[in-house]
Amino acid sequence: MLMANPMPARFLGVSLSFLLLFESPCVGQTARPQAKTNTHSVQNSAPIAGDSCAFRGEDDVDTYPNCVLQGGQGDLFIAPDYRKKLKFDSHGLAVVFDEDHSRQGWMYVDRKGHVILKDVPSFDNWADEFSDGLVRTAINRKYGFADRHGKVVIPAKYDGALPFDHGYAVVCIGCREICIMPDHPRAESDIDCEHHMLTGGRWLKIDKAGRVVAKVSR
After folding, report:
1. Which of 19, 27, 5, 23 is nearest to 139 (CA)?
2. Which of 16, 75, 131, 166 is the most exposed place for a label (fewest CB within 10 A)?
């Protein structure tokens, strides 16, 4: 099922089901260490260029300037003034969209404002959600899975992946993304395409340890 996109272009979303409709990870996403922010680095940090962010506040999603700060070791965190505005889930995590052009994408932040996980793909006009305690991560256009501590527990080595469901996830190797709205007026390039579909390749069912438990026929 396809869904309309009511949000700005940077939040282009997807409706992902077993029909394999999904949004591609951002081109240029790269792996970065999920370093912890210490008190010293927080006190001696300054806003980095293009560090505005967006998140859901009391009423709606809004953009905030000088939001994402960088510590001395390259770790990222949210400015204290904005940290108070974040909406945390029952696990103490909040979703933030980093608007910096070099890192643009979704990330999860803890109650101290530390960015514990970046490179989170979009799902249904928002950040991919945790399912069975894991969330998809998209690094260099490859999919893997991370836990709520920001640790990548299943390496990003798949060309496509569905979220975990009842302890298992369906992933693909050698599959290819195609735009299913090629005539859309905004789809001047693959990046502008709102909805993608995975086709071809080899499909596998994996458990939460990353072990292949079955082949999947399509």
Report:
1. 27
2. 166
